## 1
Amino acid sequence: MTASAITGGFAEGLWCLSTPNSSYVLAIAADGRLVQLHWGARLSPGDGSRLGEAAAVPPYQLPLESQEPLPVDGGLRWGPPSLQIAFPGGVRSLELKLVDDVAAAAPGTHRLDLVLADTHFPLQVVLHHRVRDDSDVIERWVTLRHTADSGEPLRIIRADSGNWLIPQLGDYRYSVVSGGYYAEGQLRRGRLPDGEYRLTSRTGITAHHANPWMMIDDGTATEAHGPVWSVALAWSGSWRLTAHRHFQGRAAVSAGFGHDGLSWPLDPGAELTTPPILGLYTDGGFGAASRGWHQYARAHVLPHPGEDRPVLYNSWEAVEFNVDETAQLDLARRAADIGVELFVIDDGWFSTRTSDRSGLGDWWPNPGRFPNGLATVARHVHQLGMRFGVWVEPEMVNPDSELYRAYPDWVMHFPHRRRDELRRQLVLNFARADVRAWAIDWLDRFVTDNDVDYLKWDMNRGFSQAGWPERGDAQDWLWIDHTRGVYEVIDQLRARHPALRIESCAGGGGRLDFGILARTDQVWPSDNTDAYQRQSIQHGLSQLYPATVMSAWVTDKPYSRDEQRNQYAYHVAMAGVLGIGSNLSAWTDGRHEQARRNIALYKQIRAIVQRGAQYRVGDPPGAGLTAIQYLLGDETVVFVYRPRAEVTPDPDTVRLAGLDPNATYTDPDTGTVALGRTLMSAGLPVCSRLPAGDWASAVIRFNRTG
Ligand code: DGJ
């Protein structure tokens, strides 16, 4: 791999940032603006200076401010601003000048800070960049600094983390995920329209209906071929991403936290640092883009990427709120018997929480349901050889709770406005230091006292009436500081309990992004556990996020007497982090045996699934023959799915990828031997491996043997 590098400097008026396979070039244009000259294939040293001038703009045309890494609201610019500030006296129109550059190198990384200052007002804007030796992801973020010691605040109206110019292409196509609760992560591709195409979350969390990333290609890229530019925001609160396509033939993508209509006063001496915006260029199609993101997540985001995720059992789908010591211990014994390694009690274990009506906020075991406390349950679960996990929803309160009765002002609220409940709950304002202190205190004691190994951290509603009256004019900070507060509580908890592992959940997949993944270990992608529908959810999420974060349970939804259909559900779940969510107490012996067999197989292959490179080698989910291959070192595993026995003939081979063409591979289950070249060009015949009829699926393994 070629190492990362940053060349150039103020003297040249040009900076070239290179990852192993890509370069990103910024330069000072003739009019003094900082502009992006290149983002694409890696350039050789010196190539940057031959890139020429930024595109000139004839009068009457829209200026191409989308070339700028952070187009401001100011001067002759009329596109969507990435940075918008109101200065004292209501003055708008930023006038920034580049005043300094600071480059630094550390083992494996290079960093560049470009410092801009307003020509009159006390505002400094620092554009931060980082490239790494082992990834093509370029990290950028921004710091805004009010440089006066006293005086009036500046009002920030928009503070994106960065704008990325996409080079001139014949056409522009976007790839994004859309969806909703129970339908997260649905992959959508379409022609980028002229004008602005905006994705946003106003919910206070990442959201179910969209995810803060976009890929752009020229309309011809495939899974395995073609240049693809992708941009992702590492943030778990509200966000906005705008793709701006000019009629003149350019497109750019700008993204950052917050959403339209908010503003944040920045006091003298204060600063605001944005979350990172990440950019990845590849010429290897969507598959290579996904593998680039997965590798980045493992190398630089996830806290414990090298750990095998345990097979878990979760009580929610089986019994919902009806949890008690006797039934949970019965489930635990059955779970241990089939090979489960982590037993998680979901909602319903605490205070008066027997439905969604009451109890959120009162985090002590329900004495009627757990008369001996949770520590006793934990001891039994540990004795059964499993780890012990518990569901919590720390950001929420039911109005019918002791916590709310004692601290009604802890929730987000405005005077003279309703407090709209959703799922009968309100949102605690984690921007408040006292709320965070309360949360850290009870979570810390709870984990210690009950020997908890794993928390499923849920968050079941978006913000509404998101006010914080004590902060007056500054209360919009809540939209940023709640998310930062959640990060802080999780970070402190993890620091105090290094062995604790956390699953991020927000009514299913409402909080999945590179911000939360830096402090959680896996994610609950959706409450939809129907295996067939899950496939498209997993397909969408896999565009950016690796299988190691994708919890996937086999549940009784839909329960089938057809063993083949149940087996299909295992194979879908085994392409992520396998879990079981069924009511084991109601299972037949046959289902226990099926689970035991599949869990044992999953334990053999999970390192490949969770840590391997992923290749989507079949049709997209929905019809035909879907296939996902994972490859780790000398071992590969392929999941093949044919949900419907179609009238039209299905393809009967799957071409594998990423193998050594000259190596010999052996299937340990059948003894079949094949050359890597054969498996990748002629393909792997799968028909004989698939049972007849609907819901046909198979797991096929190959190990390098020569
Ligand atoms: C929503 C989650 O997505 C479910 O898995 C479950 O934990 C419920 N909340 C519990 O209230």
## 2
Amino acid sequence: MLSLRLVMSRGDAPLRRLIKHMSSHRKTVWLASICSVVNRLFDLAPPVLIGAAVDVVVRGEGSFISALGVANVHHQLWLLAAITFVIWGCESLFQYLYGVLWRNLAQTVQHELRLDVYGHIQNLEMGWFLEQSKGNLMAIMNDDVNQLERFLDEGATDLLHVATTVIVISALFFIIDWRVALFSIAPIPLILWGSFRFQSRIAPRYADVRIKAGNIGTLLENNLTGITTIKSFTGEEKEYERLKQTSEAYCESNRSAIKLSASFVPLIRMAILIGFTATLLYGGELTLNGTIEVGEFSILVFMTQRLLWPLTRLGATFDLYQRAMASTNRVLDLLETEISMQDGTQILSDVKGEIHSESLSFSYPERNNTLENVEIHIPAGSTVAIVGPTGSGKTTLVRLLLRFYDPSNGSIKVDGIDVRKIKLSSLRESIALVSQRVTLFPESVRENIRYGNQNSTDKEIEQAAMIAEAMEFIDSLPNGFETKIGEGGYKLSGGQRQRLSIARAILKDAPILILDEATSSVDNETEAALQRSLTQISEGRTTLIIAHRLSTIRNADNIYVLENGKIIESGSHETLISAGKMYKRLWDVQTGMQ
Ligand code: ADP
């Protein structure tokens, strides 16, 4: 409900927002609109031509056409045929033109919007991402953007056609006979009034439909990513049921919109019927008593139908419009989400890699004291470990160093410069992160390693793989380095994924290396292999190791022990063991002494 209100409050003028966003395409919009209008003008000509033909047959040499200087009735008919030919050709030509223009515009706009939104949210801070549902974001960038495309494809032309029809035909009617004109256009204000009322009532329903569609996206994304957990807990039935309920909520929300939108067309048709029969009866009377000509009557009858009939489509068009506007709001809201983290300006050059935190405190929203007065000092080129129980704040410290979040108090500095002052790209280019959760992309092994440095050569990639001890398993893959690894790298084992991630970090060749539980989820043999690579690559760089298993960090120059967000002790392995406190207890537990 909260998000629904958000959509409604920010979306009071979605069309204006969209037009503003599309300002760079103003020329194309005008051109496409002109083509739509001109096409409709030609399209309205046939009833006039039919009227003129009837006029020629009934009045012969005294017809309207004879005023053009063609006295012979047969010649008049030929002339009419020629005009029909030209008009038909022009109508088709403009139909082609507006079709191409609108549809290409729809393609361009949806393409640009998707890229704009993605480009924008990529720059949003990590805290924002953690608050979002990925499925919903995907629904916005896919479904909502497509909804907009559909409207530009068909809806815009429909609206222009209706407007042109109403204006041109009303004018024509007034030229022929204002009394009949009044009868035939009488339903239009009623229809427009009804349409606007309809619009205002259907808008919140479509906004709700979009939210429900987002919920489906969220659930699907979550379940497909977590299929292993679902299967292992035999939760298929439960998840099926959950999706069923979410999908039913979507259907229900749609049904509520359909109930309203479906009643719209029949109501319009009734209004049209009144206009049509009034024109028929009154116009017929005027023709019978000789006030208007038979040809004019024919035009009136045909035109009334041409005038009123497109209005029945108005319901469908408004429907499309409202859906598109509900989507526009969601897309543009996302695009207008403000980046609250201001980028720094300083570019790091010749990074030594010294890391220093002073009175560093941080809390996640609605949590208290995730980190409290943390003071660490990692001299350039040294290897420092941070250990502590799960949830003690180790990863959070890394997030602050990478500036995924800003501290609530104190600071963390690289080479003496507060990370808030450093340009984000420069800061992150100086740090290579190997984390427990490795993201692999649906590309070849080679391209996945190249992610560490886009400019690296094939040879450098292979060398990095060698240092990461990944050669053996890469060679055993069906196409070696060219083997495509599945989405998320699911075709590889945990240890193999970890090796690729280390190869990436080697390629990145950054002055600071962070290993966040990098070897915690692999077997002993793989761990030993990974350790060898890590020892090799940590040489000459500042290395921050976050580890659970103390055996992996006992050689570190310094070890900080974190508990409940506070540093409770620090020193070398030997010092900490002899101190006999928390570290010693953890060590004893892990070595089986306790
Ligand atoms: P560690 O890496 O030592 O296991 P973390 O730094 O991941 O610990 O987490 C420290 C604390 O912060 C934990 O209590 C955890 O629940 C909490 N936490 C971690 N990430 C978030 C988040 N995005 N939002 C709110 N709380 C979080």
